[in-house]
Amino acid sequence: MSGSNEYWGISSSIDLYECDLGLMQDADAIREFVRVLCDRIQMRRYGETQVVHFGDDPRVTGFSMTQLIETSLISAHFADASRAIYLDVFSCAAYEPEDAATFAAEYFKAARYNLNVTYRK
User: Fold this and answer.
1) With respect to CATH, is domain 4-120 assigned 3.60.90.10?
2) What are the pLDDT digits (tens) for 4-24?
3) Spatial contact of 117 and 9, defined as CB atoms under 8 Å apart
């Protein structure tokens, strides 16, 4: 990984496909995922995890999650109809994006995932 002087933060976009619908629709499971993810990538949570269900269009209806962390933000949208999860992890503290992606895929029983990482300068 690059030294911290070379970038300001790491932004990971993790798209998870064919996830376990029961887990995606369980607000407590989502909160537990965030707690374990933060511990795993060594991010300190700031405040409570917000998990809100909404969406007028059935194509995108599902939970959305936000979790402030001391070094920035973790957020996700859970699209029930497609069983896809769109997770974003942004932090100015170093972490391993691949570790976050593989953990998310395991937790939500995703068949596959895409990971895009940007080093913000």
Assistant:
1) yes
2) 468 899 999 999 999 999 999
3) no
Give bridge partners of residue 117 from the DSSP assignment: 12
Nearest Cα neighbor of 100 from 59, 67, 63, 54 is: 67
Residue 48 is classified by DSSP as P
Query: Which amino acid is present at 47?
Result: G
Domain segments of the chain as ranges: 4-120
Cα 62 from chain centroid (whole Å):
15
Condensed to tens digits (0 to 9), the pLDDT of residues 80-120 reads 999 999 999 999 999 999 999 999 999 999 999 999 999 99
Query: Across the strands, what pairs with 88?
Result: 13, 75
For residue 18, give every residue at least 6 positions away whose Cβ sits within 8 Å of its Cβ, in sequence order, or none. 83, 84, 110, 111, 112
